[in-house]
Amino acid sequence: MAPLIVLIVISALTRLVGWISGLPVIDSWPSATAYGLAAMFIMTSITHFVPRRRAGFIAIVPPVIPAPALVVSVTGILEIVGAIGLLIPQTRVLAAVCLGLLLIAMFPANIYAAGARRHPDAPHTALMPRIIYQLVFIAAVILVIVGG
């Protein structure tokens, strides 16, 4: 739920600042949403490296995927790089496309995580909310791509 709140609040505040100030870099919902997504991905990427949360993320990597600790590290790094890319107008669309693909690639872990509690620090969100959150995040990415 926290990533969704960050996305919505930062996007709305950024759009409000853009509307009040007239700054061209945040003068539309797609650009404001890029900032919201960047904040969200920075927040989620940090959790990939916090020991307790990291252990929970490793626990939700489906067993068919080798080297779950490496996968968690790589996805955390990709989220950071993508978030930075969203903040640069010249790389925004490419970053959004890559982050959209990453969201799709990580979706099996979300489904797997909803199925069983393998670790006390693993995310504990039921499947339907996970699907809804993921669809909202993908819709935000699409808004940035189309508006870019």
Number of strands: 0
C-alpha termini separation: 27 Å
Measured as a percent range, the helix fraction is over 70%
DSSP summary: helix tally: 6
Question: Tell me, what's the shape?
Answer: elongated
Question: Mind telling me the C-alpha Rg?
Answer: 16 Å
- Total tally of structural domains: 1
Proportion of beta-strand residues? under 5%
Q: What kind of sheet is the major sheet?
A: none
Structural class given helices, strands, pairing?
A: mainly alpha
Order of helices and strands: HHHHHH
Mean pLDDT comes to: 90
What low-confidence regions span 5 or more consecutive residues with pLDDT below 50?
none
Transmembrane segments: 32-50, 57-88, 94-115, 127-146
Keywords: Membrane, Transmembrane, Transmembrane helix
Protein name: DoxX family membrane protein
